[in-house]
Amino acid sequence: MNILFINRQDITGGAAIAAYRLAKGLKKHHHCTVKFIVEKKKSNDTNIISCKNNFFTSCLERVINKLTNLIGLQYIWFPFSSKEILKQTKLFKPDVISLHNIHGCFFDTSLLKKLSQIAPIVWTLHDMWSVTSNAAYYDSEEYKSLKSKNSEYKLYPPMKMQWGNILLKRKKSIYQQSNLTIISPSKWLHEISKTAPVFFSKNCKHIFYYLEKPTLISSVEKNKLKDALHIPNNAPILLFNVAEKSDYRKGPDLLLKCLQRLDTLLTSKTYCLCIGNGKLLKSLQLNNISIIDIDYISNEQELFPYYNIADIFVLTSRQDNSPLTLYETVAHELACVCFDIGGCSDIIENNVNGFLIPPFDFEIMSNKIFKLISKPELLNRFKQNTKDIWNNKLNQSLTLDTYFNLITTIKTKNS
Fold first, then answer.
1. Mind spelling out the 3-state secondary structure of 307-333?
2. CB-CB contact of 337 with 354 (8 Å)
């Protein structure tokens, strides 16, 4: 089966990583032929094509995007990218188009109609953008009435004027004229997609992201990495992993507040590995916690050893869909402490493989982390329970195989 993936980026960001893992899995386990069309390409993968290969036309489309945003119209005209996307799609002749994150300076939403005339589209949602006027995340249910609240245009990705109701009606019109199947990786987003008027009559499914179970490293390799980081063998290790440490949505400020309070509870040294671009505040004075800043790591083989040496994963996101870091946490048999937002409760079961904290109570979060550090038997029980979570929710048959069976059915119906 030929599957064309369309996403804004190839290997950077959660949506890109999820799409790339899915493509690799379909190629390896179901012998599919895959190809990517992206706006921004950073990898050397020859199966990935950027729709922006000309510097002049790329600059021109950026200018067009800024001008349309000034009048409150988002992603309505990218003449050169649209032409290239359609050209590459027709050349590849896909059986199914696997659509992912399309909000960016490359994809005119109306292109969905033309693409779905070539092949049916299976659209995996990575945030709420598809059902709102312009916001990737939204704390109101006004979208259910095809309305946007007055301040929505300021939310990411922002616009300069408020024409949200028009954009929502435009999205609905485009979607209803397109051959779409909607996939949400979290139950939270699945419920949103089912109740969103823009997706009226569309087939909405819930399928978790796919992650191939990694091989855990040996005790010898763990000790080598700890030595390199100057961490004693028996010291508790926390892990925090984001793309950008300055990303407000990911709650780095909440992490610092949590660590500051946790520091007052601890009596022995604990280490916190903070992975991502940038640095956490160095002005924070901690006596019992050592923060180790590590640059963002896109390569799984380089990233996963850090999960192997950690004991507790800490997620402080204010808004999230189905964080890939939670999949990685369960795959590496870590306990987790996170706020109960978005789809976190799908993967982290309270008092089973971690703690779900009322948003955004960093005091309770610090108490729960301290509880796990001070009670090794509870920490070990949570780690053991992650195996059941993986087997019952995240194994290949429930993720990759379910996705493949779905697109096979869609291909058959479209033939």
1. HHHCCEEEECCCCCCCCHHHHHHHHCC
2. yes
Helix axis angle, 14-30 relative to 400-414, nearest 10°? 80
DSSP track, 84-147: HHHHHHHHH--SEEEE----STT--TTHHHHHHHHS-EEEE-SSSGGGSSS-SS-S--GGGGT-
3-state SS, residue 49: strand
User: Partners of 334 in the beta sheet?
Assistant: none
Integer-rounded Cα radius of gyration of the chain: 22
- Half-sphere exposure (Cβ direction) of 282: Cα atoms closer than 13 Å: 4
142-189 pLDDT, tens digit per residue, is 999 999 888 898 999 999 888 889 999 999 999 999 999 999 999 999
Q: Is this model's pTM higher than 0.85 or not?
A: yes
For residue 399, what are the CA distances in angstroms to 395, 405, 406?
6, 10, 11
Please name every residue paired with 48 in a beta bridge, in sequence order, or none if there are none: 36
Picking from 66, 74, 76, 72, the residue whose alpha carbon sits closest to that of residue 150 is: 72
Q: What CA–CA distance (Å, rounded) separates 8 from 255? A: 29
Distance, CA of 411 to CA of 121 (rounded, Å): 10
Q: Do 49 and 36 touch, CB atoms closer than 8 A? A: yes
Closest CA to 264 of 378, 380, 369, 376: 369
Q: How many C-beta atoms lie closer than 10 Å to residue 117's C-beta?
A: 11
DSSP E strand stretches across 220-367: 237-244, 270-277, 289-294, 312-315, 335-339, 354-357
Q: What is the pLDDT of residues 323-365, one digit of tens each?
A: 999 999 999 999 999 999 999 999 999 999 999 999 999 999 9
212 φ, ψ (degrees, to nearest 5)? -70, 130
Q: How far apart are CA 315 and CA 347, in angstroms?
A: 12
Contacts of 229 (CB under 8 A, 6+ apart): 271, 273, 292
Element (H, E) at 50: strand 48-50
